Amino acid sequence: MSRIVMKFGGTSVADLACIRNVATRVKREVEAGNEVAVVVSAMAGTTNQLVGWCQDLSPLHDAREYDTVVATGEQVTTGLLAISLQEIGVEARSWQGWQIPIRTDNDHGKARIAGIEGAELIRRMQTGQVAVVSGFQGIGTDNRVTTLGRGGSDTSAVALAAALHADRCDIYTDVDGVYTTDPRIVPQAKKLARISYEEMLELASVGAKVLQVRSVELGMVHNVRIFVRSSFDKPEDIDPFANHPPGTLICDESEIMEQQVVTGIAFSKDEAQISIRHVPDKPGVAAAIFGPLAEANVNVDMIVQNVSADGSTTDLTFTVPSSDYERANVVLKKSKDAIGYSYLDGSTDVAKVSVIGIGMRSHAGVAAQAFKALAEQQINIRAITTSEIKFSLLIDAARTDAAVRTLHSLYGLDK
Amino acid sequence: MSRIVMKFGGTSVADLACIRNVATRVKREVEAGNEVAVVVSAMAGTTNQLVGWCQDLSPLHDAREYDTVVATGEQVTTGLLAISLQEIGVEARSWQGWQIPIRTDNDHGKARIAGIEGAELIRRMQTGQVAVVSGFQGIGTDNRVTTLGRGGSDTSAVALAAALHADRCDIYTDVDGVYTTDPRIVPQAKKLARISYEEMLELASVGAKVLQVRSVELGMVHNVRIFVRSSFDKPEDIDPFANHPPGTLICDESEIMEQQVVTGIAFSKDEAQISIRHVPDKPGVAAAIFGPLAEANVNVDMIVQNVSADGSTTDLTFTVPSSDYERANVVLKKSKDAIGYSYLDGSTDVAKVSVIGIGMRSHAGVAAQAFKALAEQQINIRAITTSEIKFSLLIDAARTDAAVRTLHSLYGLDK
Question: Which strand (E) or helix (H) includes residue B412?
C-alpha cells in the first residue's frame, strides 16, 4: 500500500469523457490498495477563456479579482471528478485551496505556497476517501483566493505530496516521460527510467518542457518522488520503480543505481547573442551592464567573460531570448557612457546546446570530448559555460540538429 | 444617502457588454452618494451548462459536489464585475458566500440562509468600496459551499439587504415591475407603483413570475423594501418612492397610502381538477387522501370540501399541476379502499383565476361582485376558495382570458 498524489492537466480533463477516464485510472489505484489524492487543472480552454474575459474588461485588472475568476476553472473539475468517482463506486470529496487550506503568500496571480494542512485529508484518505484537490490555487493571508501562475498545478501536486507524506507524485502529461533529447531531432532518443532532481532542473530550464521548474525544485527540497507518465499510456499499474517503467521517475540521485555520465542533451534555438567589446576591466562594470537589463525585464541567460589579457579591457558575451534582442540593444546603447565599452555586436542566429549529467562531477574530460567531436563536424563553438553537472555551448543556429545528434551519439545515449 | 443592495440576474450579466452596463449603473448609485452592495447571478446559460455536466456524469449526483460545481458561475461574475467597476474608477471587491460568510444549513442544492455577518461589508461600504456578492450560495456548517436552489439569487439579495440594514433592495429583472395582471391577456394592465408583501406573495404563488416567493417572505419578515425594476429601463436614478417610479416597490402595507380594494388578478392555466366522490365524512379521511399524494411528490393546491348534507359522505375537490394529474390518479386509485370513496372524476381543462387585494379585508362583497360579473359572461365557476386577501375560482380553461378581462375591468384596474 502506498500513498499517492495523482496530477492531471487540462488536456487530461478536457471534457466529460476525459474526466470519466481519469476516474477509471484513479479507481484502479484505489483498488490496488493505495491512498489517493488527485490534483486537477481546469478543463482545457477554460482558463484561457476566463483570462481573456479579465483582460477584455481591463488590461490592467486587479490580480485579486483575476484570481477569483480564474480559480473557478479548477473548482469545476474537482466537483465533476468527485461525481464521476462516486458514480463508479469510489468514495470521493472535492477540496478547494481555502478548504484544506493551502496557504500562500498574497502575491496574487503568481503566489507561492507557504504551507498545506494535510491532517484532515490524510485522515479521510485512510478511510478510503479520495481527495480531489484544485491545483494552481490557494488562499492568501487576506482570506482571498490566490493562484500560483500558469502551470502551477504541477507545483500544487508536489507540494501536496510533501504535505501528505506521499510515497510519490504521479504527473500525467501529454508526453510519456523524459527523454535523453528531443526525439523529433534524434529518433534514437531514449526515455529515461530515472533522472535526478538536479539533472531534471537543468533539462527543464534549458527547454525540455515536461514539468514546471518550480515543482522539481520543490520535489528536491522535500524529497518527493515525481513520476512523469502519459495520460494516454496503457492504464495497467506498472511499477514506477521497475527498470522499464511506463514513465520517468524523478528522484534523489541516491536512488539511481547505474548513473550515466551524461543523462541528456538539451537545446534552445530561441537564443540571441550580444557581445560587448572593450569593456573596462574594473569593479562594478557587470552591475552597470546587467542592472539596466534586469530593470527592462530582459532575461539574461549564459554570461561569458574572459580574463582580460592586458588587465585594462575585456569582452563580455551573454545570451537573451530572441524576442528580447532588440530591447537589450536599446538598453545597452543608452548605457554606453556609463559602461564605457567601445562597440556592440551580436546575432540572433545562434542556439544553445547543453549536456547534462550528474556523472560529470566525477568524470574528467567530458566537455573535451564534445569539443573534439563538434570540431570534427566543423561546428564552431562561439562560447562555453560550465557548471557542476552541465556545460552549454553557443553555436550557429543552423548547426543545432547536427550538434545534438553528434553529442547524443558521442555519450552513448543512442544505445 | 442610502444604503442599497442591487441585484442583477443572469440575463443582466449575460456577456461582457452587459457586465459593463451593470458597472455603469452601479457607478451612478455610488456617485449619488449611496453605499452599494451588488448581488449577481451566473452569466446566462452558465448554470444550465454546469448542471448539465453534473447530470451527464451521474443522474443521482452528490449534492455537495453539485454545489461545488454550480457555485462557480456566480464567482466568475463577481470577479468580472469587480474588475469592470475598478476599470471605471469605482472601488470594488468580490465576495463569495464562504468569505462573508453567508451561513446556511447543510441542505445542499436547496439550502436556507441561517445568517449573514454583515459588519466587515458595512465597514468597507462606508469607505466607498462596492461589495460584489455571489448570489445563490453560502457556506454550510460542514465548511462546504451550498447553493440555495434555482432563483436563489433574489433570496440572497434580500437576506443581504436585511443583514446590511439596507434602505432598499433593487431587483433588476427582465420586466419593469409588477402588473395588475398579465399584459399579454389584458392590454390595459397597469404597472403597480407599490404592492404589499402579502399581496405580492399571493400574486407570485399563483403564477406572476417576477420574484422568488422566498425572497418576498424574507423581505416581509425583515421589512426589507424590495424595488423591482427593469435592467433595460432608462438608467436615470428615478426615485423608487415617487408616485410613478420606474418599477414596483414591494413594501409594508403601511407605506401604501391609497390602497385599492383589489390589487391584481393572477391566473394559472396549468391546472387539473380531481374530485373524489362520496368520501366518508369522518376524522382522518383528509390525511388518508393527501398523505399518499405528498409522498408521491404531487403538489396539491386548491382544496375544496363542502359540509356534507347528510353527515355521512361528502365530495372533495382539489387541483394539481396538469403534469401531476396522471400520477395523482394512480395514487388515489391505489388508496381507494383506505379512503373508501365511490369514484373519481376530474379534468385537465381547467384554470385558476385569483383576485388579490389587501383591501378585501375591510370591504365586504368583493367576491360577490365577481360571481355576478362572471355569470353575466356565462362563465361557470367550478369551485371557490377564499383567504383573507385573495379568492380563487376554478373555471373552464377556455374561458380564462375572458374571465381575467372581466375581473380586471370590474375592479377598476383598467383605469
Answer: none
Verify whether the Cβ–Cβ distance B62 to A72 is below 8 Å.
no
Q: A19: which 3 cell numbers?
A: 474526466
Contact B277, B341 (CB under 8 A): yes
Nearest to B16 among A56, A72, A78 (CB): A56
Nearest to A75 among B72, B78, B94 (CB): B72
* SS3 category, A349: strand
pLDDT for residue A237 is more than 60: no
Q: How many CA atoms lie within 13 A of B226 on its CB side?
A: 37
pLDDT digits (tens, 9 = 90+) for B115-125: 999 999 999 99
Contact flag B80-A144 (C-beta cutoff 8 Å): no
Decide: pTM greater than 0.90.
no
| Domains of chain B from N-terminus onward | 3-253 (3.40.1160.10), 264-410 (3.30.2130.10)
Q: Is B76 on the interface with A (CB under 8 A)?
A: yes
Place of cell 375591468: B409
How far apart are the CA of B63 and the nearest CA of chain A, in angstroms? Answer: 9
Decide if A78 touches B, using CB distance below 8 A.
Answer: yes
Does B75 contact A80 at a Cβ distance shorter than 8 Å? no
Host H or E run for residue B346: strand B343-356
pLDDT of A207 higher than 70: no
Give the per-residue pLDDT at B26: 96
Looking at CA atoms only, how far is residue A39 from chain B in angstroms?
16
Residues 6+ apart with CB under 8 A from A304: A316, A317, A318, A383, A384, A385
State the pLDDT at residue B270. 87
Query: Tell me, what DSSP letter sits at residue A42?
Result: P
Find residue B286's DSSP bridge partners. none
Q: Which of A271-296 are b and which e, b meaning 16 or more Cβ less than 10 Å from the residue's Cβ?
A: bbbbbbeebebeeebeebbeebbeee
**pLDDT category, B314, cuts 50, 70, 90?**
confident
Residue B69 contacts residue A134 (beta carbons within 8 Å): no
A400-410 vs A366-376: helix axis angle to the nearest 10? 130
